[in-house]
Write a structure and sequence with these properties.
The complex is a heterodimer of chains A (about 170) and B (about 325). With about 170 residues, chain A is α+β, with helices and mostly antiparallel strands. Chain A has six helices and five strands, in the order αααβββαββαα. In chain B, the strands form four sheets. Chain B has a four-stranded mixed β-sheet with strand order 1-5-7-8, covered by helices on one side. In chain B, helix 3 packs parallel to helix 5 and helix 6 packs across helix 7. Helix content of chain B is about 50%, strand content about 15%. Classes of the chains: A alpha+beta (about 170), B alpha/beta (about 325). The interface between A and B is medium-sized, with 21 and 28 residues.
Chain lengths: ~170, ~325
């Protein structure tokens, strides 16, 4: 599987449409969206002593590395499934290169960390996700679907731009 | 909320540390908060250096240059961080396919006419002759099969619309017909100046998206102009500029004394420009409740949303419906 970023695996688990748009270069993260800025600041300042933005592949970077531990920093723990899948993907990439490491999801604001290990089931999960991602990216844009996270998403204005049907003249 | 800065006087724009200063001819310095600046319009003679351009690039600020007469000359846009080759290819496909191109070209024209009719309705007397005539010509717009045919039909509607101006302008301002380059009377001067502003504002908003500003539908895609901006301006010129012109003239906020005549051209003088710009800025910040986003959005942001809708149309997500004021 080539050219799939960690964040794309995360988006896959949250919103297929966001994954598709991001991959096509239609991005909204840099439009001064509040939560994105918050996330960036957290990313800049958390764990200053560890190695930062370590490149696992040309397209894939991990937030922090501390010896045998990979660390991904998240703003909230509301998307644990997606966070876990993203980490499994990083561990999977390393395993392809014969490297075994442990993953840690850091919810710094909530003072919580979650350990992630790549077992057979996890590997299976990653493979399945990557195959699905490939299918999604080869297809048309996934239709809009209202999700609980929509209200906080940087892509909201794009998805919700449009004219209401009534009062057409 | 980021705003547009208009520099009317001559002087020097410079970077000091990490913000902007404008120094006028008398040496007076005015700070301009770079974080809150959307784009800068230079209407006077202004000096600057590359260190300023670096700062503008960092903050994604475009600047627009106008000549002595207030005509648009050009734009400096920093390197665009937003690139989606996929979208540009799809956007171009909609130009190459005559049917797809006509759909978009008609959408722009029809939304423009919708706003013209709205202006007549809101500012006019009970005389419905003008709007009736335009309505009777809509068929020709809808059934046009080529761009020149569409342009012709639109031109006829616009002619009637401009004929109606005589009734819409209350304070006896002189009005015969639309005249450009040069505008021959104060009303034409206002429209020309306003349209330049509309055009640059749209460029700034398109720039914030992945759309290619040179790939257009109603206007021929051109290498000399950001013609997509002209397309989108069809929708917003009557909605924003014309209604602003009526408001300013009918309330006497701009009067004969705010114009000057130069080489056969009637132009706004500096007080007139100031007044118009202040009103324009105010108008762009005015909000309406967006029916899908379910929150207040400014007129300026409506332009961005128009760009988003076009992207959705190009990538096969949602069929484009132009913005038509419903209130």
């Amino acid at each position: 599987m080539e050219n799939v970023r960690g964040v794309e695996v995360h988006y896959y688990a949250i919103c297929k449409r966001k994954l598709w748009l991001f991959h096509k270069g239609i991005r909204f993260e840099n439009d001064g969206h509040e939560r994105v800025i918050e996330g960036k600041i957290l990313h800049e300042h958390a764990y200053p002593k560890m190695d930062k933005d370590v490149e696992l592949e040309a397209f894939v970077r991990i937030d922090r590395q501390d010896g045998d531990v990979l660390r991904e920093i998240k703003l909230t723990s509301k998307m644990k499934k997606a966070d876990r899948l993203q980490m499994l993907y990083y561990l999977y990439i390393l395993k392809q290169k014969g490297i075994r490491k442990t993953g840690l999801l850091s919810y710094t604001k909530e003072k919580e960390t979650v350990e992630v290990h790549l077992d057979d089931d996890g590997e299976q999960e990653v493979r399945k996700a990557l195959a699905n991602i490939q299918t999604i990216l080869e297809g048309n844009i996934p239709p809009f679907q209202k999700l609980p996270y929509c209200s906080k998403c940087a892509y909201k204005d794009f998805c919700f731009s449009g004219e209401a049907d009534q009062d057409e003249s | 909320m980021n705003r547009d800065i208009f520099i009317l006087s001559n002087g020097r724009m410079k970077r000091k540390d990490n913000t902007l200063y404008f120094e006028d001819e008398k040496g007076e310095k005015r700070p301009i908060p770079v974080e809150q600046t959307n784009s800068i319009h230079f209407l006077g003679q202004v000096d600057f250096n590359t260190s300023l351009l670096h700062l503008l690039s960092q903050h994604q600020i475009c600047f627009h240059v106008y000549n002595y007469y207030g005509y648009y000359d050009g734009t400096f846009c920093p390197r665009n961080p937003k690139v989606s080759g996929f979208t540009v290819v799809q956007q171009s496909a909609h130009v190459l396919d005559p049917e797809k191109r006509m759909y978009l070209a008609k959408s722009f024209v029809l939304a423009g006419i919708h706003h013209m009719l709205r202006n007549i309705r809101r500012n006019g007397s009970n005389d419905t002759a003008y709007s009736d005539t335009i309505l009777s010509m809509l068929d020709r717009v809808e059934s046009a099969r080529t761009i020149p045919e569409l342009m012709g039909a639109e031109g006829h509607c616009r002619q009637v619309y401009y004929d109606a101006f005589g009734q819409l302008l209350k304070n006896g301002m002189e009005w015969h017909s639309r005249s450009k380059q040069p505008p021959k009377d104060p009303v034409n001067a206002l429209i020309s100046f306003g349209n330049s502003l509309m055009y640059t504002t749209i460029i700034s908003e398109i720039y914030k998206t992945v759309l290619d500003p040179t790939v257009s539908f109603l206007h021929e895609p051109s290498s000399r102009r950001f013609s997509l901006s002209l397309d989108i301006a069809e929708i917003f010129k009557p909605l924003i500029i014309d209604s602003l012109v009526f408001t300013l003239l009918n309330n006497r906020r701009i009067q004969e004394k705010h114009f000057e005549s130069k080489d056969g051209a009637v132009l706004l003088n500096s007080e007139g420009r100031k007044r118009f710009l202040a009103a324009f800025d105010e108008k762009m910040k005015t909000t309406i409740k967006h029916r899908k986003l379910n929150r207040q959005v400014s007129y300026r942001y409506l332009i961005r949303l128009e760009a988003y809708k076009l992207i959705k149309h190009f990538i096969g997500d949602e069929v484009y419906k132009p913005f038509k004021a419903w209130w």
